Amino acid sequence: METLDGNALAGLLAEVFGGEMTSTVVTCQTCGFTAAIAETVVYSRLPGAIVRCRNCTGLLMVITQIRGVNCVDMLGMA
Amino acid sequence: MEGTAVQRRLTWKVATVAAVTRETPSVRTIELAVPDWPGHRAGQHLDVRLTAEDGYTAERSYSIASAPGEPVVITVERLKDGEVSPYLTEELRVGDQLELRGPVGGYFVWEATDTEPLLLVAGGSGIVPLRAILRQRQRSGSNVPVRLLYSSRTLPDVIYRDELDAYDDGISVSYTLTRAQPPGWTGYAGRVNSALLAEVAWPADKEPLAYICGPTSFVEAVAEGLVGLGYQPGQVKTERFGASGGR
Amino acid sequence: MSPISRGFHGRRSTPAGAESRVPPGQYVTDGFPVLSAGPTPHTSLNQWTFSIRQDDRELKSWSWEEIQALPAEAVTKDIHCVTRWTKLDTEWRGVSMDTLLGAVEHDSGYILAFCDGGYTTNLPIADVTDGQAWVAYEYDGDPLDPEHGGPARLLVPHLYFWKSAKWVRGVELLDHDEPGFWETYGYHMYGDPWKEQRYSGD
What we know:
The complex is a heterotrimer of chains A (78), B (247) and C (202). Chain A is mainly beta and 78 residues long. Helix content of chain A is 10%, strand content 41%. Chain A has one domain. Chain A contains one helix and seven strands. In chain A, a hairpin with a 6-residue loop joins strand 2 and strand 3. Chain A is globular, with a radius of gyration of 11 Å. By secondary structure, chain B is an alpha/beta fold. Chain B has two domains: 13-104, Elongation Factor Tu (Ef-tu), domain 3 (Beta Barrel); 118-241, 3-Layer(aba) Sandwich (Rossmann fold), CATH 3.40.50.80. Chain B contains five helices and twelve strands. Chain B has helices at residues 85-91, 127-140, 161-165, 194-200, 216-228, and strands at residues 13-24, 27-33, 45-51, 57-63, 72-77, 97-104, 118-123, 146-152, 171-177, 188-189, 209-215, 236-241. In chain B, the strands form two sheets. A six-stranded antiparallel β-sheet of chain B has the order 4-3-6-1-2-5. A six-stranded parallel β-sheet of chain B has the order 10-9-8-7-11-12, sandwiched between helices. Chain B starts with 12 loop residues before the first strand and ends in a 6-residue tail after the last strand. Chain C has helices at 64-69, 97-101, 181-184, and strands spanning 27-28, 49-54, 57-63, 73-80, 85-96, 110-115, 120-124, 134-139, 142-143, 153-155, 168-174. Chain C has 202 residues and is mainly beta. Helices cover 7% and strands 32% of the residues of chain C. At the A-B interface, strand 1 and helix 1 of A face strand 3, strand 6 and strand 12 of B.
């Protein structure tokens, strides 16, 4: 299965956070790697979207769309 | 009120198809009339949402093919097992409506104020946002030198061929055809690899800015190749399309 | 109210006569979409085991060879993904969970399946016994593709397919229903497609 990158989440994140987020640099809580959200590995078309660190595949964010409401959990970002 | 930028919260709006143009047998450009379009930056994209009569919805993302100041235009490639792309490339007509959210994306963008030599590397429909960047370079009067490397399966698959061939001042375009080349072809053949990049890309010491767009596997291979040529990660911007059905 | 996209049908079509097999809100697909929450793990078969655990203890474990030696069944089932696709008549081969759970003594009410890559999902024991669940290692006559959960996945077709955990490596026996990965993020604890139990609270 091909993954995408964080660019694919630009619209959803802008809708949730009220502004452009893909150029925001985030730090992986698992390995310390820093990258723009646009550069993260995105597993999409799931029951939600999973965002992982390109360096260690650690979980950065889990995004779900439940009853029309977008929920973004940023558990893996330091 | 003039000069006041109203930050509207991004949400879905209804756009109307204003024009359609066939680019290749499987690629179509769609011009959209979007109410209250706030303008966009070269490299940005928009999300499209379709709703069937029974309520079924499908969403996809498409790069904006036009420069800031031009009408909103997307270019869509029909994918073999696609669900949305066959509709957009075959069925959709002038006057039809669709929902879109955008413009979005602040990472894979180019501004006329950027002064670095540009390396643009496109795989298939990855050419779309790079075409917007080239148009913006022209419109803004920027003279940064550009090298474009565009990988397609066959010559009929090359999108915007005439437009790209017409560039001469400071823009150098190289094509590589991976599946078949016409008789007398003087361009490159085969997939983009380190050897081809070494020949075509700016040397790293020119401190170029690279934009790579296309299917995920293409982007990964090219990014790795550029890093191998000494490009720093911060100089390489990537945008990955899915191999099937876009984003 | 979203405007209707004239002429847009998506890809779905329900074969004539199959309407009663399609749960509410679902669409029939003839493909087999690959949905993964992470990279495909690659555990070599000589290191692979399936184990039943309880209170941090391993009650029983089978190697790949041992699982292959157990009586296996061929089953044909309809499967339903919470992302709204349904696939009819999918063919699997694997070991019934009755066989595996029957090898240990327990009186637990629930399991939490655990997998390579860290995925988990929870199920009542009553839903993975009585011929309702398998550890499946073949799909459509071939060894299960890694993309689809190979070497082996849990198969629980009467519930939404996120419960059919890919790359399953065992189950934890519990006395309470413990939310797994998607359940923690708001997906339904049980997941009955016929009641459209997609999200918590449905």
